[in-house]
Specification:
The protein is mainly β and 107 residues long. It has a 4-stranded antiparallel sheet with strand order 4-5-6-7, with no helix packed on it. A 3-stranded antiparallel sheet has the order 1-2-3, with no helix packed on it.
Length: 107
Amino acid sequence: VHPSGRYVAVGEIGANPNVYIVDALSRRTHRVLRDGTEQGYADLCFNRRGDRLATVGCSPDYMLTVWDWKNEKSTALLTAGCNTISGVGKDVSSAGNAVSKAADKSK
């Protein structure tokens, strides 16, 4: 949910999934974010200012994508490598930056 409460981010599961930014008042799709992961979204989180959205993909890529969602553009992509990114959230000790949680699979 966007910090203003106005928008909700919804991620699809399945091949070539999208993220839909839905206006909570009108229930209409406001933006569509494409090509952020291969098989579905495991977690989504707006930053504190609400101008960025972080998403985490499911297996097999566990892609962490940061979006400029208003312009429907990704601003950063990170593959997890041998680790699994299991979620994103707001870091309350900083200026509202998104942080990731990972489980080390390299052992």
